[in-house]
Amino acid sequence: MTGTSMRAGDALLVVDVQNDFCPGGALPVDDGHAVVPVLNHWIGTATDANLPVILSRDWHPVDHVSFHTRGGPWPVHCVQDSWGAAFHPELRIPDKAVRVSKGGHFERDAYSAFDGTGLAHWLRRRRVRRLWLGGLAEDVCVYHTALDARRHGLVTHLLLAATRPVFADRQQECHRALREAGVILIAGQ
Ligand SMILES: [Zn+2]
Fold first, then answer.
1. Which pTM was predicted?
2. Residue 112 Cα to ligand 1 middle (Å)
3. Total domain count, the chain
């Protein structure tokens, strides 16, 4: 079992903590905003240790294929440059944070922060071997991002206090699948 503290070779990945995924947004996750103070704590830890902090964001063009208006599974959300696509205003984003935008193709959706972004390549170049992640939503974008992190050979820690599901009834199944893939689930802060 690995420890629960960050060290050289680690990076923090904050997945899609955007207005539309928080209460008041277009596709709100129950209690979604509650991840912000927890993630701020981890951002502080990573920044103090001079480790990379990466923020992914859902960043869709108008008329994106995932929207109800196109027959997709989701309401219109995270349209590029809209208020809903902005990071939560209380998220303490370090100056040096790396932004990764996904879902920018009209005809194709991307749940994982690794999907079509080149993030795995960048992490390799930075010699990152272990990833710590949280954000929204636990059973969709965080889930697929964690699985991709494992596929890219990263030791992957999911911070349970820093994530919330959009479908709460899927949470246990998600945890089981993540554990099976070798993702380390970190309880508490
Ligand atoms: Zn989306």
1. 0.96
2. 10
3. 1
